[in-house]
Amino acid sequence: KEALSITQAENRKLQKQLDEEYLKQTNFNRNDSETAEVFDNFRDFQGSSYGRLQELEDTVQNLQAELIREKKERLSLEVNLEEMDIVLKERSSSELAMQQEVKRLTDQIAQLKSGGKNSQQEHPEPSKSSWDEERSTLLRSFEEEKRSIFRHFLLQREKLEAKVQEIESAFERAIELESRRRTPDRFSLTSHESKDSDSVQSLDFEKAGFDEESAFKLPSARSADRGEEQVEEISFADRDESSRGERKLGSSSASLGLYLDGMKIIKILPGSIAARAGLTEGDEIKVINGALTNTTTCGPMLREGVGERELDLTVNRRGLDLKVSVFEGQARKVFNMNDGREIVL
């Protein structure tokens, strides 16, 4: 019995030690799994934090670029506003000077008339005919001078009004281009190459001024739209030798959308590149890509410039030189001011 009791006591002691050891092992395993889970959570948090930080950095860079662009646009508009203010001040000063000159001439004529009456009353007999003749001569000369001054100031006023209209149209064009630039691109042409034509780079149809329904019609499909005017068409459809030098009569426009009579633009199709670039009917094309034109070379030079990365034109509009650059489907206008400065829109 004593030996059995001793054995049972030892067994209970060993069982207790085994239970304690099992509890220790269980706690150790649980701590290891919790530690691993904490490390996994930390790594996930670190990865997500890095991605979020990268997104924030990209957002900051985009905001900085947008801020710089807005500053440039604001500066351009401020320059245009200053030019408009100068033109309006010149117009006001010219009108004021004209009014003062008219008043001065009117006062002189009134003085001459009153002086003639006084002279006739004082010396009616001896100098009546000679004074009348001299007075009429002076009055005619003053009337001619008055009309000349009126014509001069009216001409200056017309020039100032034309310049104001140019700047206003430039503002409207700048606003239109800005609105189109902010509009997402909807049409694009994937670049491709063929044996008989040059590669066509990716273009934005809407910015380039193309009519997406008819801009790239084949000649047979485009012939249905042709009119009866016997004028030259500047064809921009392709660049192979069979159509590069062809002179087409009685058809509507191709991709530029303009008709020429020598150097003068006589027709602009709505929605075309020429219309979006700011060209108007009556403009005379003086320079194409830096080369002077004349009535016989203007059309061929335009055809030779088709397909270039950039087509620079200088046109004369009511005495004002206007530079128009068409490139990558966009257009910009450069006004050459009388004082040598240029306004770029």
From TrEMBL:
Biased segments, Basic and acidic residues type: 120-136, 192-202, 236-249
Annotated signal peptide: none
Protein name as catalogued: PDZ domain-containing protein
Keywords on record: Coiled coil
Coiled-coil spans in chain: 53-80
Species: Hanusia phi
InterPro entries: PDZ (IPR001478), PDZ_sf (IPR036034)
Gene3D superfamilies: 2.30.42.10
Annotated PDZ domain residues: 233-296
Stretches for region Disordered: 113-136, 182-202, 216-249
